[in-house]
Design a protein that fits this description.
With about 190 residues, the protein is α+β, with helices and mostly antiparallel strands. It has a single domain, classed as endopeptidase fold (from Nostoc punctiforme) (Alpha-Beta Complex). About 40% of the residues lie in helices and about 25% in strands. The protein has 6 helices and 8 strands; from the N terminus they run βαββββαβαβααβα. The strands form 3 sheets. It has a 4-stranded antiparallel sheet with strand order 2-1-5-8. The protein has a two-stranded antiparallel sheet with strand order 3-4. Strands 6-7 form a two-stranded parallel sheet.
Length: about 190
């Protein structure tokens, strides 16, 4: 078995504030990761930390990609077969090879709020992308079109379980402690074989 991670946040960006104001959803952004260190995170969003556009397929880093002190965050885990995991990783890898040919789906984001499915080649918004990867790889059985999936819908996936809920800064602190613990254990094991 392998694990796929979904990271949900509500950032302090203008777009996030608008989405939160219109929907009242706890989270306004979604990313996917294939590593327990939650790096890299793949999503659709701002290509520059300080500007809304240009936007498209991006790699995010929990410690550097998000602005603000108190950012609500949740991490969900999906246990999947090796084959499903490989399919999901492959889907993202193929897209990353042509990263500059993928764009943020602003129209789709608006139509999602209105409940109107809208699929445009090579255009996604964050939760649309995450849902599409999970659906294509068969990690989830989703009856709702990916273009209508909001970050809050990812909370309801029966295949996913919550492993963290709190502020992003607490996740980063916990992740740093975990990374140090792993580094220490690896060092100890390595020294035992010297």
């Amino acid at each position: 078995m392998k694990t796929i991670y979904i990271v949900l946040i509500r950032a302090n960006t203008l777009l996030s504030k608008v989405i939160h104001g219109l929907t009242g959803d706890s989270y306004t952004h979604a990313s996917i990761s294939f590593c327990d260190r939650l790096y890299p995170l793949y999503s659709f969003g701002r290509k520059s930390k300080n500007e809304m556009f240009p936007a498209g397929l991006i790699i995010e880093d929990l410690e550097r990609s998000f602005i603000g002190e108190t950012i609500p965050c949740a991490v969900y885990r999906l246990q999947v077969s090796d084959d499903v995991y490989k399919l999901a990783v492959n889907e993202v890898s193929i897209m990353m090879k042509e990263q500059d040919k993928f764009y943020f789906n602003t129209v789709g984001l608006v139509l999602c709020k209105l409940g109107i499915p809208y699929k445009r080649s090579r255009h996604y918004f964050c939760s649309h992308f995450v849902s599409e990867i999970l659906t294509r790889s068969k990690a989830i059985s989703n009856s709702k079109p990916s273009s209508l999936m909001r970050p809050s819908d990812l909370l309801e996936l029966p295949e996913a379980s919550c492993i963290f809920k709190g502020e992003l800064k607490h996740l980063i602190t916990a992740k740093s402690s975990y990374d140090q613990c792993i580094s220490s254990a690896v060092s100890t094991v390595s020294q035992a074989f010297v």
